[in-house]
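Consortium newsletter contribution from the modelling node. Members have asked for a concrete example of what our holo predictions look like. Here is one, prepared for the S-adenosylmethionine complex that several groups have been discussing at recent meetings.
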Amino acid sequence: MSHSTSQSQIESHYDLSNSYYALWLDESMTYSAALWGGTEADPAGLADAQQAKYHRHLDLAGAPGIDGSHPDGFRLLDIGCGWGGMIRHALDTGRVTAATGLTLSRAQHSYFGATPRPNGKVLVESWETHQPEQPYDAIVSIGAFEHFVTADTAPEKRAGAYESYFRRCHRLLRPGASMSLQTIAYDGVAGTSGPVGAFVTGDIFPGSTLPRLVEIAAACDAYFSVEQVTSHPDDYAKTLSVWSARLTAARAQAEEIVGPDEYRRYRVYLKACEATFRRRAATLYRIGFRRRDEPLFR
Ligand SMILES: C[S@@+](CC[C@H](N)C(=O)[O-])C[C@H]1O[C@@H](n2cnc3c(N)ncnc32)[C@H](O)[C@@H]1O
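And here is the predicted structure:
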C-alpha cells in the first residue's frame, strides 16, 4: 500500500500553471533550495545558485566531473524531477550520458517536452512502480522526499514507508553506485502541529509531511551507507526570500494568471516557510549515500 502523496494531490499544486511558476522561479524552473555558498540572497544570483546545487548533487551521486570520461556511459535517475532542471544540467554539462526523470505532474512532463534533450526523458510515473530495463549508475532526488509519506500516515507506518523508498533505490542502482538526497526535515520542532505546519503540509502541499533525520538514517541503513550529511537552513531561507521578491515584482502578471487570492496564498506560504527556516524549526539536508552491495537484512 502506498503512503505517498497521490497524483491528484501533486497536480493540485504543481499543475497550477507553468507560466505562473516561470514568473518567480529561475530560468531552469528549479523548485527547491539553491546552493548559495555563503553569498547573500540576490535575485540576480538565483540561476547560478541553482546550477551550483545541481553540480553538488551530481558530485554526491558519484557522477564523473565535467571533463571526466565515461566510456561505458553514465545513466542518471532523477526521482521527483520537476520541470527537468537537473536533467538539462546533467546532460548539458556532459556529466552524464543519459538521464531519466520521474514526476507525477503532467504539466511538468509537458514542459520538459518543450525543452527536450537527446538522451533525456521524463516519465509521469512514481518511483514505487518504476522498472527500468537496466540499473542506473546514480540516483538524485531533490525536494521530493517530502511527498513520500503523507501527514495522515499512522506513526507506526512511517518507518516502513520511508524504508520502502531506500529498498526500491537499492534495486534501481548498479553495485557500487552512489545516490544523493535533498529534503526538508523537521529540526527544532517535533511534527506538523501548529498552524504554519498545517497550512503548508495540509493546504499548500496536500498529502505531504516532513521526515526527521533519524527517520532517514534508520530507513536507509539496511541498503545504503551514509557518506555525507550537511544541513543548510540558510540556503532555503535565502531561496524563499528571492522567490518572494520575484513573485512580488511580478504581482500584476501573477494575479492575471492565478487570481489575487492564489497570489496572496503563495506570498503567505513563501514568507511562512522562510520564517520556519530562519528560526530553525526545519532545515534542509543534502545527503550522499553509497549502495551497500551486501544489504544488512534485519
Ligand atoms: C518540489 S518539486 C522538486 C522538483 C525538482 N527536483 C526541483 O528541484 O526543481 C517535487 C517533485 O516531486 C515529484 N514527486 C512527488 N511524489 C513523487 C513520486 N511518488 N514519484 C515521482 N515523483 C514524485 C513531483 O511530481 C515534483 O516533480
